[in-house]
Amino acid sequence: MPLLGEKHLRRALRQCGRRSSSAGADGMTWADLRRQAGEVLPGLAAQLVAGTWRPGPLRELVIPTYTGKSMPTAIPTVVDRLVHRAARNAVEPVLEARAFADWVSGYRPRRNRNTALRQASELLSGGYRCVADLDAAKVSEGVAVDEAVGWFAEYVYDGTFLRLLRTMLGGLPSPVVPGSGLAPLLINLRLSQVDRRLTGLRVVRFADNYCAFTETVSDAEETAWYISDAMAAVRLEPNAAKSRIRRKANAEDLFLIDG
Q1: pLDDT tier, 20 (very low <50, low <70, confident <90, very high otherwise)
Q2: Which intervals hold domain Reverse transcriptase (predicted)?
């Protein structure tokens, strides 16, 4: 499997090693790992091939969010974050090709808020000025390891990868815990279960924010209930404080971080 080789670990290190993020519980930094790469990476690759790699200890802490709330998070060791990045490199092209709709942006390569705004602007220009604007609440909560592995297994059939994925996720407090390099993929995979139920709607999603475009307020209200039902089917619900019907939407008002 490609991600298991030392070459692919070195690629992941080039991607991650430029960061200045915190050290893990073992105190190793990215600078330390770069200096020790010649010793660490061959051994790590051998463990991954043999299936003997196990996650290291976590550094758990609480960080403030932009809203002023506190968010529990877990910081893996830099070696574990390297494995997460290598796994993401291996699986992301498959998911991009097969799992994610064209109207989904956020947590994806080359698809950001600007991509979502362009798609939204096209729909608004087409006369669909009423918008059902719904944020999915608590998308990182309530996920079991088996469920998360099952999302990947819909698209990935490599048993070695799925076993490694189970090991990685089992070493975290929960599969979608903030701080994991796999959390962005997992959020999109979870929401893809909602996305597949929205066939026929004029919808754009950025991260966990759905905007469905209609001609009338009554259509927007009906669409909002439809999206809510699609969320409920996978144990999610709209964030009541951030969800609304926009009667004459302006694209620049959509997909804001603070709602």
Answers
A1: low
A2: 69-246
